[in-house]
From TrEMBL:
InterPro entries noted in UniProt: Claudin (IPR006187), Claudin16 (IPR003927), Claudin_CS (IPR017974), PMP22/EMP/MP20/Claudin (IPR004031)
Native source organism of the sequence: Leptocoma aspasia
Protein name per the record: Claudin
Keywords tagged on the record: Cell junction, Cell membrane, Ion transport, Magnesium, Membrane, Tight junction, Transmembrane, Transmembrane helix, Transport
Entry membrane topology: Multi-pass membrane protein
Subcellular location: Cell junction, Tight junction; Cell membrane
One Pfam family of this chain: PMP22_Claudin
Family: Belongs to the claudin family.
A GO MF term: structural molecule activity
GO-annotated cellular components: bicellular tight junction; plasma membrane
Recorded catalytic activity of this chain's protein: Rb(+)(in) = Rb(+)(out); Cs(+)(in) = Cs(+)(out); Na(+)(in) = Na(+)(out); K(+)(in) = K(+)(out)
Transmembrane segments: 7-27, 120-142, 169-192
Task performed by this protein: Forms paracellular channels: coassembles with CLDN19 into tight junction strands with cation-selective channels through the strands, conveying epithelial permeability in a process known as paracellular tight junction permeability. Involved in the maintenance of ion gradients along the nephron. In the thick ascending limb (TAL) of Henle's loop, facilitates sodium paracellular permeability from the interstitial compartment to the lumen, contributing to the lumen-positive transepithelial potential that drives paracellular magnesium and calcium reabsorption.
Chief subcellular location: other
Amino acid sequence: AGMKFFLQYVGFFFAFFSAGFLIISTWTDCWMVNADDSLEVSTKCRGLWWECVTNVFDGIQTCDEYDSIYAEHSVKLVLTRAMMITADILSGFGFLFLVLGLDCVKFLPDEPLIKLRICLVSGVMLLLAGLPGITGSVWYAVDVYVERSSLLFHNVFLGIQYKFGWSCWLGMAGSLGCFLSGSLLTCCMYLFRETSSGRFHSAYSLRKGYSSAVTIVTNAHLPSSQTATSKMYAVDTRV
């Protein structure tokens, strides 16, 4: 039981921070940051939804939102948005299911097998959340690196050159955390599912045997006259 609680709390810890990292990563503005050391006046960041410029001297930040989602955008931007939103939804629901499956939460306290199944479902959802999250963040980072390397290789200087920023790193960290928590909840909790199932069947067999024994003892203590009367009543009823 102690190991089961420990695994649940470790999975809860990683699921909480992983879902938070993915959500913060999706809705922050620093997926790309300017990498040109000669620009000392301002810092420019690009996110999935807007682009922000921060003045180095006074710290004033100015953000410009991109065009509508129906406007034409690059394939990199559209697919990364879709994958990160999918990861946010799956990780959020996985975390909520995990909260319901914790033994310390008073939800279905008399149904340990159902609570274990809820933890397993949570683990599967977290594993699924990690897949689009790591795909979107890593693909975005690699694409930025390839674009920068190709410009440097061809000696092209556009004034501002980008590298991937902390929002992209948060997406990777959140995705890896989802994989870790999902693995704990699916692989390790499955062992406790088998143990709990065996205990449930043993307890059911004991209760069934006990009820059968009580019935036999009760019938044995019935007087013979009552037994004969009941048999006659059964015959008359059938007739």
